[in-house]
Design brief:
- The chain has 6 helices and 20 strands.
- It is about 25% helix and about 20% strand.
- The strands form 7 sheets. A 5-stranded parallel beta sheet has the order 7-16-8-9-12. Strands 4-3-2-18 form a 4-stranded mixed beta sheet, with no helix packed on it.
- The chain has 2 domains: about 130 residues, 3-Layer(bba) Sandwich (FAD/NAD(P)-binding domain); about 210 residues, FAD/NAD(P)-binding domain (3-Layer(bba) Sandwich).
């Protein structure tokens, strides 16, 4: 979905459900009161609640590494959440750090705009946009992948830490092939580890990262091939991907002076920040412990987190089912006569 379509979807949802929403409200503190209810402190006054559903997602604080402090002030630095278009960056070459969805898509955007891009590649996997006549997401939905729960996933809870596959919906959707970009002039490196003595230091893992991303790409396509064969689906044949470029001698150091780099876009994700929630529901790393959004503390629930229960839990596609599950638990806990909702956005 495009930006305007997402906005329209949300507006239509509000019009249909008509919930008591308060917009532009920051929740600053939630804590248990002596009577067992919750005190909810916000920028629009304080509330009391019997139950609290945290629906703020899991991407709160942009990650900027400490090495950023050592870079010269002449280099413009922004996080991916601040990026809008190539024109906002100064003239010169751009270093994009990270190759997840944001990093790969921003690198593509700059590359297509004619900018010289340096990309520090991480271990993010990739997937095809279309394969054998259909969007890969459609194939995976038919195959039941998006119905797989955390408990049934081979990685169990570890799947929540996975980086999303890089691909794009730009111009109707297409693959992102970093090897092809390299053939066209993009400069690829391994993970950026530090800035010291005037030089950027990269890990020697570029080939391994590219190979791993392609292995995932072809693995997903192979699973689709198997599904097509087992279910006698009529679909056009499509060849598996073969690399169009291989990295040469690894570059592990790059002197910043003389490199032409005038800007850095940090695309290494976000950390959760639930410090405002005073509840014993966290795992020691800032992430909530829960079972499909239900925590060990009565009255505290989560919704909309990546892989809360399935892949779609953090997306429009399946968040509704998780919401229904949590709402039923709340209704059972409170009793139907006390079941009411308030929304702070």
């Amino acid at each position: 979905m495009k930006k305007d379509e997402i906005v329209a979807y949300l507006k239509n949802f509000v019009a249909k459900v008509n919930p008591p929403i308060r917009e532009g409200v920051a929740v600053t503190r939630v804590e248990r009161r002596d009577d067992g209810t919750f005190s909810v402190q916000t920028s629009d006054g304080d509330f009391t609640a019997n139950e609290v559903v945290v629906a703020s997602g899991g991407y709160h604080t942009p990650i900027i590494p400490r090495m950023a402090e050592k870079l010269p002030g002449s280099v413009t630095q922004i996080h991916s959440n601040q990026y809008r278009n190539p024109a906002q960056l100064p003239e010169g070459e751009v270093l994009v750090v990270g190759s997840g969805q944001s990093g790969a898509q921003i690198a593509e955007d700059l590359h297509l705009a004619g900018r010289t891009v340096h990309l520090a590649v991480g271990d993010a996997p990739r997937c095809a946009r279309f394969y054998r006549g259909r969007d890969v997401v459609t194939w995976l939905a038919d195959m039941g992948y998006y119905e797989m729960t955390v408990d049934n996933h081979p990685l169990r809870d570890g799947v929540r830490d996975n980086t999303n596959h890089y691909v794009t919906g730009r111009d109707g959707g297409r693959d992102i092939d970093l090897r092809r970009f390299a053939k066209e002039g993009m400069k690829l490196y391994g993970v950026l580890e530090d800035f010291e003595d005037g030089s950027l230091r990269f890990r020697d893992n570029l080939k391994r990262s590219l190979d791993g991303a392609d292995r995932t790409y072809n693995g997903i396509n192979a699973a689709i091939d198997k599904y097509i064969a087992e279910n006698n689906v009529d679909a056009p044949v499509q060849a598996h991907y073969t690399p169009v470029w291989e990295p040469g001698e690894p570059i592990t150091r790059l002197a910043l002076e003389g490199s032409g780099i005038t800007a850095i876009v940090w695309c290494i994700g976000f950390t959760p920040d639930f410090r405002w929630l005073d509840a014993s529901v966290f795992n020691g790393a800032g992430n909530p412990k829960h079972k499909r959004g239900v925590t060990q503390e009565d009255g505290v629930y989560f919704i909309g987190l990546p892989w809360l229960n399935t892949w779609g839990s953090g997306r429009f596609g399946a968040v509704g089912r998780d919401a229904e599950f949590v709402a039923q638990r709340i209704q059972t806990h409170l009793g139907a006569e006390r079941f009411a909702l308030k929304f702070a956005v």
